[in-house]
Write a structure and sequence with these properties.
Residues 1-21 have a biased composition (Gly residues). By secondary structure, the chain is an alpha+beta fold. It has helices spanning 32-44, 136-151, 205-213, 216-225, 244-247, 250-263, 303-316, 376-379, 382-389, 438-447, 477-481; strands at 2-6, 52-56, 70-76, 87-93, 113-125, 160-161, 176-181, 188-190, 193-203, 269-272, 274-278, 364-366, 370-375, 395-400, 406-411, 425-428, 431-436, 461-465, 470-475. It folds into 2 domains: 32-263, no CATH class; 267-281 and 362-484, Sufu, C-terminal domain (Gyrase A, domain 2, 2-Layer Sandwich).
Length: 485
Amino acid sequence: MDGVRQGGGTPASGPGSGSGSASGSFPSLFPPGLHGIYGECRRLYPDQPNPLQVTAILKYWLGGPDPLDYVSMYRNLGNPALNVPEHWHYVSFGLSDLYGDNRVHEFTGTDGPSGFGFELTFRLKRETGESAPPTWPAELMQGLARYVFQSENTFCSGDHVSWHNPLDNSESRIQHMLLTEDPQMQPVQTPFGVVTFLQIVGVCTEELHAAQQWNGQGILELLRTVPVAGGPWLITDMRRGETIFEIDPHLQQERVDKGIETDGSNLSGVSAKCAWDDLSRPPEDDEDSRSICIGTQPRRLSGKDTEQIRETLRRGLEINSKPVLPPINAQRQNGLNHDRAPSRKDSLESESSAAIIPHELIRTRQLESVHLKFNQESGALIPLCLRGRLLHGRHFTYKSITGDTAITFVSTGVEGAFATEEHPYAAHGPWLQILLTEEFVERMLEDLEDLNSPEEFKLPKEYSWPEKKLKVSILPDAVFDNPLH
C-alpha cells in the first residue's frame, strides 16, 4: 500500500535543507544513491524542494510488495516557445541502488550501472484546474518496476510495453507504452554507479503495432512531431482520442510503411504463449517431445553448459539488426551487447534460480515435420516476423512465458544457425529453429493474411503446408495456461 505525503519528511527531500546535510552528523538519513538522483531533480526544480511523493509504506527490502521506495511528483510549467504544455513530472527512486549496502541491489562498483542502471519518469499533461498530480502514474511505475525486479530484464530506450489496458483504468485509448530518454534529466554518477532516466510514453494500440512492425525509436520521432500526441517532450495526454495516423494519415504510408520496407523491424523477439511438437516422432515417444511436457525426468547440466545455453537464448531475444545468431558455445561478454544491456536473469532461469535442463539439450536434432502453436496475440506477430525480419535477412524468436520452450525463425542469410536449408527444422533441447527460404516466406505471408484481421478471427485456426511438413495452429489462451487442457 502506498502513501502520499509531502516530501519534507522523507529521506528523498532531506538534502533540500542544504548540501551539508548529506555529509554532516546524520549521513545515514540521506543514502548517497538517493541523494544523487534527488540532486538532479533539484537542478530541474529548484523551487520545489519538497515535492509530493508516493511512498511505499512497507519498503521492498523489508518484505513489502513495491520495489520503488518513492515516486516524486513535480509540476512542470512546460515551454510555450516549443509548444510544450504544462504537465506533471514523475520520477522513481528504487530501480537504481539507493543505499549501497546490498539490501536491494548488489553493489558491483562505481564504473557500471547502479542497480538496474535506470529510474523511470513519466510526463502527464496537467488538466485545467488540476491543483495536485494524480497518483495513478506511481502505481503504473510500480507495476513496471515489479516486472523488472521479478524478471531481471532491464528496459532500454525504444522498448515497448504491451499493457492492453488504459493506463489510468479509464476509457482512454492510451493503453500501451514506449520508453525513451527523459528530455530534461541527465545521467547521474553516484557512488554506486551510473543512473539514467527512462521516460514512459503512453501510446495507442495502433502506435504500439507500428513500433513492433518497424521500431520504437521511429514511432517516438513521429510522436515528437505531433504536438497533441506528445510533442518534443513526449507528454502523455490520457484524453487524446486520435492516433497519430488518424491525425496525419500520411505518416503511415510515407514514414512507417516505407520504414518497414527499407529498415525491416527492430523487434527480434518476444515473450509469448507458444509451443511446438515434433511430428516426425510417434506421439507416445515422450522422451524428446518439446511441446508442453509433463512427467519427463530431466537431469541437471553442468554450470558451464547451462550458462552457455542461457546466454545463447538471451542474446537471441535481444534487439539487434545484425543477421547473425550467437553460436551455441557463446561466452558471456562484459558490458553492452549490440544495442541493449544484458538482463540480469537469463532466459532459462527457473523460479528456484537453479535451472533444470532436459538431457537432450546437449545435442542438436534434425526434425522432419513440426507443428507450431501460438495464442492469438503471438500469432498476430507472425506476419511481422516474416515481413519485417526474415525478408531482411534476420531472425525472430518466440520465448515461451510458461516454460523453457523457444522458437526461432531464421532466414537463409542468418549465420550461426543450426537449422540449414538441407535440414530446415532443428532442435537443441527446447529451442527449435525454423529456416525459411524467401520464396516460402512470400507464400506464407499470402496464406496468413487473415492474421491481420483479428476481429474476424475464430479459434482454433490451423494453417498447413504438407509439402513442407509444417503446420501452424492459433489456439485459445487456455491451451497454454493449462498444459493438461
